[in-house]
Amino acid sequence: MINQDIIDASNDDFKTDLHTDYESLGARLDRRGISIDAIKQKVAGYGIAVPSWGVGTGGTRFARFPGAGEPRGIFDKLDDCGVIHRLTGATPSVSLHVPWDKADPADLLSKADEVGLSFDAMNSNTFQDQAEQAHSYKFGSLSHTDAATRAQAVEHNLECIALGDKIGSKALTIWVGDGSNFPGQVNFTRQFERYLDAAAQVYAGLPADWRLFTEHKMYEPAFYSTVVQDWGTNLMIAQHLGDQAFCLVDLGHHAPNVNIEMIVARLVHAQKLGGFHFNDSKYGDDDLDTGSIDPYRLFLVFNELVAAEGVAGFDPMHMLDQSHNVTDPIESMMSSAMEVQRAYVQALLVNRAELEGAQDSNDALTAQAALKTAFRTDVEPILAMARLEKGCAINPIAAYRAAGYRAKVAAVRPAIAAGSSGIV
Amino acid sequence: MINQDIIDASNDDFKTDLHTDYESLGARLDRRGISIDAIKQKVAGYGIAVPSWGVGTGGTRFARFPGAGEPRGIFDKLDDCGVIHRLTGATPSVSLHVPWDKADPADLLSKADEVGLSFDAMNSNTFQDQAEQAHSYKFGSLSHTDAATRAQAVEHNLECIALGDKIGSKALTIWVGDGSNFPGQVNFTRQFERYLDAAAQVYAGLPADWRLFTEHKMYEPAFYSTVVQDWGTNLMIAQHLGDQAFCLVDLGHHAPNVNIEMIVARLVHAQKLGGFHFNDSKYGDDDLDTGSIDPYRLFLVFNELVAAEGVAGFDPMHMLDQSHNVTDPIESMMSSAMEVQRAYVQALLVNRAELEGAQDSNDALTAQAALKTAFRTDVEPILAMARLEKGCAINPIAAYRAAGYRAKVAAVRPAIAAGSSGIV
Amino acid sequence: MINQDIIDASNDDFKTDLHTDYESLGARLDRRGISIDAIKQKVAGYGIAVPSWGVGTGGTRFARFPGAGEPRGIFDKLDDCGVIHRLTGATPSVSLHVPWDKADPADLLSKADEVGLSFDAMNSNTFQDQAEQAHSYKFGSLSHTDAATRAQAVEHNLECIALGDKIGSKALTIWVGDGSNFPGQVNFTRQFERYLDAAAQVYAGLPADWRLFTEHKMYEPAFYSTVVQDWGTNLMIAQHLGDQAFCLVDLGHHAPNVNIEMIVARLVHAQKLGGFHFNDSKYGDDDLDTGSIDPYRLFLVFNELVAAEGVAGFDPMHMLDQSHNVTDPIESMMSSAMEVQRAYVQALLVNRAELEGAQDSNDALTAQAALKTAFRTDVEPILAMARLEKGCAINPIAAYRAAGYRAKVAAVRPAIAAGSSGIV
Amino acid sequence: MINQDIIDASNDDFKTDLHTDYESLGARLDRRGISIDAIKQKVAGYGIAVPSWGVGTGGTRFARFPGAGEPRGIFDKLDDCGVIHRLTGATPSVSLHVPWDKADPADLLSKADEVGLSFDAMNSNTFQDQAEQAHSYKFGSLSHTDAATRAQAVEHNLECIALGDKIGSKALTIWVGDGSNFPGQVNFTRQFERYLDAAAQVYAGLPADWRLFTEHKMYEPAFYSTVVQDWGTNLMIAQHLGDQAFCLVDLGHHAPNVNIEMIVARLVHAQKLGGFHFNDSKYGDDDLDTGSIDPYRLFLVFNELVAAEGVAGFDPMHMLDQSHNVTDPIESMMSSAMEVQRAYVQALLVNRAELEGAQDSNDALTAQAALKTAFRTDVEPILAMARLEKGCAINPIAAYRAAGYRAKVAAVRPAIAAGSSGIV
User: Fold this and answer.
1) Which residue in the set B180, B359, B364 is minimally distant from D187, CB to CB?
2) Which of B103, B403, D64, D105 is deepest in the core (most CB within 10 A)?
3) Chain C interface includes A16 (CB < 8 A)
4) Low pLDDT (below 50) residues in chain C
5) Local mean pLDDT, 10-residue blocks, chain D (424 residues)
């Protein structure tokens, strides 16, 4: 869909400056004892998964305003995801959501192959009712008071595993909306026990080389309590289930002011950090573009991840999970994937010997300066050079716009009417 | 729809105990120098508006799970609202939302008359796109960068006034979703100036005996900034527009930890408190049932309102504004209307001479005890007696369930499929 | 200090009404199938510990404004605590803070016996430096980078146990201020490991019939990170240490909006709920009087505790922990102890069969009504009757004021100058 | 105190690299159409005031851990402030706090002249009691229920003006701790009216060329309500008082999640933005080093300030206001002054034509990229070159440490014992 000629033409606009900037940055890093090429290699090898649902325009309970060329189904979504990876070289895999993305495994594999992608973690959906469904999830799924509803939710998760197994996925991510809207509506303990019991049934169906990720969230869609409300409960779940169970951290799922990078460190310590859903937020689960609100927080998370590299069993999965309500979703995901890379590279630049020395001597100012020096470094030339060397775009947004992709797909994909949402 | 026989039969179950309880409470209040009958008169004269949209099951961006007998349109909604008032005697008026509730004014008046209701403030909708609409509100309405879009939004508000004027409404409430999702997306000041300019055009179309209410909200559907983000901006708007403009306070639209009762006091001081959207929340704009999370906060708001009674120009409008996702909306609104009455009555019971004496002498413990003594009083017998004397139900939920209303309407109103919402 | 005559005289003012109110409440509860006498017996047997430091006027980092008759040391404090229990019959034990309350064990026991109190959990202090101290806690205590500082902190905790053991205490509560003020200042994981190691040394010194309580807190005095920041970390600690280690919950130590009653339920589930520091808060660790801001939240916590009664190993400790900046501390603690009792009694009134039935059938409205009905019950007559029957005051504040205790102690205890605090 | 030789020696370590980096950054900026020298000129002309109290080690209500060489009084403080400006060239003025800094005006002027500083806004203190004071501020100052206490507070503010007038200050900043700890303790409206009345008396005593800044704060030291709780109330005050009255914004004084840069824009719009107290915070009024927690937020504030440059009457004052609990206060203030400069320079780099174009066309991604491109630029060479050209230090922290200033003053200033604070 995106011709190499277009990429090359776009790169021609930026190539000379990039080489200049890469060299001068290289010289500056060299003074700090850092090899720019080594860093470039690390980021070139780094990939983050994109969510299939992220290429559609998102919305709120008040409204959804679709853009032009909305994907009609999983195969259109894979096309769009392919474009993201084609231009950035940063997103080699896609995470599917079932039943939204249900399709013949062979067709999925064939399409993925065509667009140069593989499949990341599978995502089940028991927070919505499907047309054919026997039991409603209005009052919960894995933790529902009714055994048949729980069984149906377990069965759905097993089905996700079965599909994932056929397309090369190695993980299942479970996020449920189960909770309550009134004090008293649920018995916290019994609800949790039902959840644990049902999750154990899903876990029992996990292939030996798979991992199960459970995701905590403070609130929404339930507004008084949520069954997996925070990392403490999430850790209890992962420990209850077993060695293949891990906690997934979504950056927008915490209480105000919470120190998320510290939660990351605690989960690493407990050997239960399974992965991330990256996005950004100012208020709640805003699902904004990664790094758009608080880029330093994102860096601090990666500072923990880089520090944990090499720890036994440490192998977290990275995925974007955003809602693109006012931008072209492809542009937002390209930009966000690059923000994640940026934070990763900045964290790689931290002088850890200096940091640890300052920590050991309680020299707080020097310790923070070690982080700030890394964070302040404009590492764009490293990211861009890694892209260029892969045949991708120095400036993916520019190349994408030049390619006219959105207009092309809008010509074949029918327009969608704006819709009202949950409130009416 | 609800036969008086059913109400009477239900009341028979509770009448004897009610009389006993009313008497013993009367005696206790008498000791505090309070006439229970005088209080009962005040609550009997108190009414709160219900929102037409509140009788449908609400949802979130993740899903909406409709119940049985969802109203098919405004006339079904008026039937449901009529039931609420029929059983509680507490909700004599309905607030309409345009275009959802657009209909022939004569038909609206006739139906309202049939179910014993009148019309409260009109609500415009420029946070969603309608099928026939020329310009999209994706990037704003009254504050949009495009003049034609702003004009369309102004025009829609004028249309709401025109309809309201024909059905006896005396106020327009404006809430917009305008804001931004990224730092930089909008210029805060220019966006605000556009809003002020457009709002002034709406204000210019206000009949002489109408009021304009503007509503602030911290976030959602915009997740980085909102044009009318807090009461400070809301006050600037009301002062800019003129004497007929006032601020509307929705209890769920503030930052975490904010002292809402103090905002109420400030708006009273500024003579710009226009009214309330009552609900409750634990996290964000959760739109939970009023008083379900923090009943003492609701009492503290009413403590300010009772203290302000008699202040020149003080005449706030009261309305419920909730999203009923897991309950029968009629039950939730009956229960919530009674919670509002309860808080009002409790606030009436505050010994204001004692309170002021304690305040003047900085006796904080006695001051708070004056509030707590009032709040702790179980005033249910007063509310129930007021209902009984109006021919309504002592226990509206019990009478409603006994009447089988939901099953009856479910028999004639078609079932609605559960829907996914904004996220896909 | 408080003569029985004064109590009796005060009680004479309220006795007749109390009997009337107790009877009419008894009749109402009887209708709900509840024996008022049985409830009264339960509350009569319920006691909550008071903190020795709570009888002095508290302050903030900006200032402290002492009142008249501030206690000069632990023996004055025990006098004041004795008054609280003498009048309320609700606070049979005192929790000491070392080194503030260090004294000869025999003298402590003798004084406690004189004022009718026993000793609750011991509290260590490694968040301040003492004059004679070799190593400063400026950069931490149990988790300090320096081994000698950690050893000193461990030693201090062992000393607290030794003193406590001699005066009948059976628990040690550890709260540390360790954390950081800058990203990078500490290595989260190493700091945590140092904490675990040092805490294990304290745990090793615990007598066989003692319990160790660790307390989590989100922030303050450290403002970027705290080593035991939340219940998740606290649970990891208690599980690491062993069967005698439990988590202590202070109601004011959580992030905004957090559902604390759910944390209580999770810790009960994990069999690691050790106890509470009761207080109330609107913003941060405000240490306001229990139930003064959100009495329904306090009730919801007790709703969990009553539901957990009888669970194996469930035996949490209850203590007040407040800062009395603008009230007479004795009055605030009497009032707060009664608020705790009130919440306990209200929770006892919950119709659990109805609640569970509603929960099982997802009837959220009925479930919440079951809680609200209990919460709305004005149980003051039960609390007052329990006090009267113990020879305590029907209205402890009135009796206390009538007794003129504050003026009496002010005559012998020297006035203290107002002090500035941390900021300069 | 800091010899030029030491600065020069330190600069020798960094000079060559600085010239290289300045040149390569200049070339990169040149490509963006920006003259690096013009930017350097702007930052060279930019100054921020330091608070006299900021050079002492701060503390919390739990403890204060002084460092070596704590200043003994205002003249030591001026020495320390002189060092900050000597090395950074960024802090030409000092803000005094009365009565802490009370001294003979001639001596103050002479000392200021000696250390190369002038005097910024005066700060009054009515949140603490002083030894000689007739009336206590325990229950408030300007808003106290007692007229004599209010008069005393007014008088104190007038005394601050009188002193300031003699030393060249042109502004008074009022921050009060007045509020309440219990619902009911104060009557919100009467307290506010008393505040307005007393503030008007202070305002009446303002010289014609002075400005009055009032500061809002959500909570602390009062924990239920604060009389000037937010910018809405602050704006009401400034409008009530008159043309010389303006609102002061402290970055740490807001509710969680609040969009502070938008408040800045609203106050600019209202022509009432008076100035800033810069610091950073993660939880409450943490008073952490500016830019240490969320540097992007600081940039976004400066983005508003730069956008407002040239607006009629726009002339906000800039001051640091931090509590340095774990660092050398001089180091923290040097570092923070440079962080403020950094944010200012980054904001100057925003391509405003591109930004506005993107805003007008609702191209959110491009708009945010315009901000991010500026923010990502490592402008350290510009700041450092401006310092070097002023004869200051390229690396002020390194030069300061090399100078051994702290050890020198510790030799003459006596050690201070660690102190406990408000809690006991």
Assistant:
1) B359
2) D64
3) no
4) 424
5) 94 98 98 98 98 96 96 98 98 97 98 98 97 96 98 98 98 98 98 98 98 98 98 98 98 98 98 98 98 98 97 94 98 98 98 98 98 98 98 98 97 84 52
Give residue B355's pLDDT band: very low, low, confident or very high (50, 70, 90): very high
Burial of A252 (0-12, 13-18, 19+ CB in 10 A): buried
Q: 């200050």: which residue's tokens?
A: D169
What is the per-residue pLDDT for B422? Answer: 56
Query: In the block, which residue shows the tokens 């009730």?
Result: C299
CB-based contact (8 Å) between B19 and chain C? no
Task: Kindly report, residue by residue over C397-415, the tens digit of the pLDDT.
Answer: 999 999 999 999 999 999 9
Question: What is the least distance, in Å, from the CA of A396 to any CA of chain D?
Answer: 13
Q: What's the per-residue H, E or C state across chain D?
A: CCCHHHHHHHHHHHHHHHHHHHHHHHHHHHHCCCCHHHHHHHHHCCCCEEEHHHHCCCECCCEECCCCCCCCCHHHHHHHHHHHHHHHCCCCEEEEECCCCCCCHHHHHHHHHHHCCEEEEEECCCCCCCCCCCCCCCCCCCCCCCHHHHHHHHHHHHHHHHHHHHHCCCEEEECCCCEECCCCCCCHHHHHHHHHHHHHHHHHCCCCCCEEEEECCCCCCCCCEECCCCHHHHHHHHHHHCCCEEEEEECCCCCCCCCHHHHHHHHHHCCCEEEEEECECCCCCCCECCCCCCHHHHHHHHHHHHHHCCCCCCCCEEEECCCCCCCCHHHHHHHHHHHHHHHHHHHHCCCHHHHHHHHHCCCHHHHHHHHHHHHHCCCHHHHHHHHHHCCCCCCHHHHHHHHCHHHHHHHHCCCCCCEECCCC
The DSSP call for residue C20 is H
CA distances from D204 to D121, D190, D209, D215 (A): 17, 21, 13, 18
Task: Decide if A330 is inside a domain.
Answer: yes
Q: Which of D181, D284, D422 sits opposite C284 (nearest CB)?
A: D284
d(CA A321, CA A340): 12
pLDDT tens for B368-405 read 999 999 999 999 999 999 999 999 999 999 999 999 99
Q: What is the pLDDT of residues B45-95, one digit of tens each?
A: 999 999 999 999 999 999 999 999 999 999 999 999 999 999 999 999 999
Question: What is the number of domains present in chain C?
Answer: 1
- The answer on pLDDT for B4 being more than 70 is yes
| C 100-129 residues inside an 8 A Cβ radius of D | 100, 127-129
Range of the domain at B196: 34-351
B171 contacts B246 by C-beta, under 8 angstroms = no
Tens of pLDDT, residue by residue over B254-295, are 999 999 999 999 999 999 999 999 999 999 999 999 999 999
Tell me if chain C has a CB within 8 Å of the CB of A360.
Answer: yes
| pLDDT for residue B313 | 85
pTM above 0.95, yes or no: yes
Name the A residues in 392-421 with CB < 8 Å from any C CB.
Answer: none
Can you give the CATH number for the domain in which C229 is found? 3.20.20.150
Share of chain B above pLDDT 90, in %: 96
Q: Does C229 contact chain A (CB < 8 Å)?
A: yes
Long-range contacts of C194-199 (CB under 8 A, 24+ apart): C194/C142, C194/C143, C194/C144, C194/C145, C194/C150, C195/C142, C195/C143, C195/C227, C195/C228, C195/C237, C196/C237, C196/C240, C196/C241, C197/C150, C198/C142, C198/C143, C198/C150, C198/C153, C198/C154, C199/C142, C199/C174, C199/C237, C199/C240, C199/C241
**Residue A381 domain-assigned (yes or no):** no
User: Could you tell me if residue B101 is inside a domain?
Assistant: yes
